[in-house]
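Notes to self after the Tuesday call (sharing in case useful).
The group wants a holo model before anyone commits to mutagenesis around the pocket. I volunteered. Ligand is pyridoxal-5'-phosphate. Logging inputs and output together so the record is complete.
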Amino acid sequence: MTIQLPDNLDRNSCAALDARDPLAAFRDRFLDDGATIYLDGNSMGRLPKAAVSRLQEMAEHEWGTILVRGWTESGWMESPLRVGDSVAELIGASPGEVLVADTTSVGLFRLMTSVLRARPQRRVIVTERSNFPTDLYIASGVADLLGCEVRTVERAHLRDALDGDTALLVLTEVDFRTGERHDMGALTAAAHGVGALVLWDLSHSAGAVEIQLNHHGVDLAVGCGYKYLNGGPGSPAYLYVATALQDELRNPIQGWLGHDNPFLFDAEYRRGPGIRGWMSGSPPVLAIGALAVGVGIQLEAGAHAVGEKAAMLTEVFMRRAHARLDALGFEVATPGAPDRRGAQVSLRHPDGLAIVRAVADQGVIGDFRPPDLCRFGLAPLYTRFVDCWDAVERIAAVVESGANRLPHYREEVAIP
Ligand SMILES: *Cc1c(COP(=O)(O)O)cnc(C)c1O
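Result:
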């Protein structure tokens, strides 16, 4: 991927990039106070305006008047599969490979458990030390439960850690701290080379960069709904099981809705076909309705165009960060190569927490991750190039004015 930007980038050239941005119109699909530069869509995506009317309609019409018949007449029962198919399209998977369910944490548990039960001769999960904590916690819990081992290594040693004992390689494609993006194809091939399966966490990937699960022969994946997919607080997650593994791997939570025919109320469990067998209990229908709106907007925009814009937004932000912030004690932690990063830029600064708080009071919402990372998520559907420019200017102004040294930015409070 090569990125063409004017040599003498200024605010006007950012405005020109916005003027010819093919995704510019999507900004208007989201609720926006018109004043805030919201760069935290990697933590909690904005509210799609259409989700408001959809939720209202679901509540008043479907729940309010159709009531129990909604399970069939309003398609509630099929919604985890239907919206799963939309997510599949977004992440380069096939229909029938993705289910909307639970949280990412629960999806990780279910998939890891299923692999270790299916491959009893292999007793090791390999993952990296900087993985998202829930991925590490779930892996160690699964290892305790099933009596196996988690081999946690530095990123540079991942390939060396794979061997004939490895059942599963578990990685998050885009690192939540730095935005660094793994080479999904190469690492999937490395895991397959030793006969292991691979599980990718796409929480910071889907809706931010283009993903091709089928193309890379990925076995398993999970991801969350409330970040770049804009599904809202409490949005369910999704899980992906490649068609080739659907007979071999079994859902460890054998609930009634994963039964081949739940309404026989049979005493014996007989698993349902394909991804349907990964259903457990009743789906969160209203939340899935909201997520469907967010995923639908992503599909309209197209994953390729979204990924291209993410690469350009991060490039603009990083270029300005180098020009304006290097001299103020910041260090860009996000990789310079566009295909090696997601849609966020992270800046290291020893006073990062106070800076993020002070910058928020100047209308730029980012967040902080210990020990020293200021994170700025540049969600491609509603972030403009001028927002990148203005955000860097405001960060610089905070540090130049010493606003981050004010005592109230330095108090110990819980970090959201
Ligand atoms: C946000 C995130 C999660 C979220 O997990 P939930 O159980 O859905 O809250 C999981 N993994 C990664 C990598 C994340 O960034």
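Two things stood out.
DSSP finds twelve helices and 13 strands in the chain.
Residues 103-105, 132, 134-135, 172, 176, 201, 203-204, 224, 237 surround pyridoxal-5'-phosphate (CB under 6 Å).
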